[in-house]
Structures are given as C-alpha cells and as structure tokens.
Amino acid sequence: MSTAHADGRLDLRRWASRLWDAVRINVPLWWVLAWTGVLWVLLPWRKTFTTDDLPGSAVLEQHAADIRAELDVLLAEREAIPGFHEVDPGQRRLSDSRRWQVFVLRFYGLDVEANRQRCPKTAAALDQVPDVHTAFFSIFEPHTGLPRHTGAVKGIVRYHLGLIVPDSPDCWIEIGGQRHHWEEGKTLIFDDTFIHRARNDTDETRVVLFVDLVRPMPWPWLDRANRRMLDRLARSTRITDPVARAARFAD
User: Fold this and answer.
1) Is residue 7 part of a domain?
2) Which of 83, 105, 47, 58 lies closest to 247, judged by CA?
3) Where are the beta strands (DSSP E) in the chain?
C-alpha cells in the first residue's frame, strides 16, 4: 500500500510510523547486519543461483503439483490468511495491508505445526530439502508490489517456487537491476541482500512458495559460524514473536 495521499502528497505521519517500526524492531539485531557485512567481504558477489548450487532443492519442483493442490484449498479460505505485517510488524516498511498475505509453515527454523498439518504434502516435500530455514506461501493481490529493499541476512539464499503466476510481463521481480519473471512449477533462487523489488501489475493473483535455505559456505569454519548466527537469531524475540503470531492465526 502506498504512503502517499490520493493527490500525490507524501503521508509523512504514516511514512514515519513505518520507518520507526523498522528501526525499533530491527536495530537491536545489529550483530546480524555485522555478520552480513563479513559475508559481503568473504563470499562471491552472485545475484542468482540454480538448483545445482543447492543440493536437494530440486525436490520442490518435483512436488509442485501437490503443493499447488494444497495451496488451492487454502485459498478457498483466503480471508483467514494474515498479511505479512500482521505476522511480522517489521515488514510494515514493505507492506501494511493484506495485499501481501503469508501462510507460514516455518520461520527461521521454527515450525508453525498447525499450518504444516494443513499442508502435509508441502511439509513433507520441504522436509526432504536440506537446510530449509523459512517457508511460507507468499500471496500478492492484483496490482500489488514491494518497493526496493534489501534483506539483512546474507547467510541464507532466497528460493521462490512459482505456483500461481499471471502470464504477463507485468508480473516480475527485479534483483540487482535485472528483471526476472516467475514461472509456474519453476524456481527462482537469489541473494536477497542485493537490492530488489517486485510487482504484480496484473488483474490476477500471484503466489509463490517462499523459501530461505541456509547458504552453502566455501569453508567449514565459515559454515559453522553462519549456523551459529542463524541459531542465535532464531532464539531472539525478533523471530519467536512472529512465530507465535503465525500460530495464533492458525488456531
């Protein structure tokens, strides 16, 4: 949702509220940003990946039809699916309406068991993929988008499996200045710490299975350090609070 008035003037109060939420919630995790800075130095600057780079990740494509069937059942009760900002208030800087909805299965390593039980085949497919850190259905309403932004955690890789994708060039994601289009049953894998944005400027809904995978590291010591950082993050209230909210929506 825009932070501008109908006449084009910026709604400063609303913009400031969203900015304050982002600062208040995210700044205490300065050590996550520091670790991301270390990885920017140590890792190759690579924007996109393939399933060959992530062992086992092709499993989700193989189960795309089953995952889509479970998604269709969920969408029949779509009004019960929360906006991302309702699960994680830190996302208000990107969207503060239900035009971006999420059905959370796992968030930073913590499962929302009630939601997994509603999607057993999807959960089983995810369990076959090594190092799934986060997984949820990401639902964009028609004429919805996210502004340019960057992720804070370079120790993961972002994976999208296209499930419902409008057949239009007006549904896209831009990563590091390069535009990409989702395809149903196909994956798009990228490093979300590069500046990216997304738009669905069509009259149809777009849905992807949104997955974060622990990023492969070139050295064992760096892999151990990265996993310790992710484990510490998962124990913080920055993560446990959204998981609790997602569970409440599942009740």
Assistant:
1) no
2) 105
3) 48-49, 100-107, 110-111, 132-140, 144-149, 156-164, 171-175, 178-180, 187-190, 196-200, 206-214
How far, in Å, are 81, 95, 116, 236 from residue 76 at the CA level?
10, 23, 17, 34
| Nearest Cα residue to 173 out of 136, 133, 208, 126 | 208
The vertex-129 CA angle with 128 and 135, nearest 5°, equals 110
> How many whole angstroms separate alpha carbon 94 and alpha carbon 150?
11
Query: How sure is the predictor about 1, in pLDDT bands with cuts at 50, 70 and 90?
Result: very low
Give 28-52 pLDDT, tens digit per residue: 577 888 999 999 999 999 999 999 9
> Structural domain of residue 176, as residue ranges?
12-250
In a domain, 2, yes or no: no
Three-state SS at 19: helix
Identify whether the C-beta of residue 82 lies closer than 8 Å to the C-beta of residue 102: yes
Distances 132 to 93, 110, 143 between C-alpha atoms, Å = 25, 10, 30
Amino acid identity of 188?
A: L
The number of folded domains in the chain is 1
pLDDT digits (tens, 9 = 90+) for 114-157: 999 999 999 999 999 999 999 999 999 999 999 999 999 999 99
Classify residue 8 by burial, with Cβ atoms within 10 Å: 0-12, 13-18, 19+.
exposed
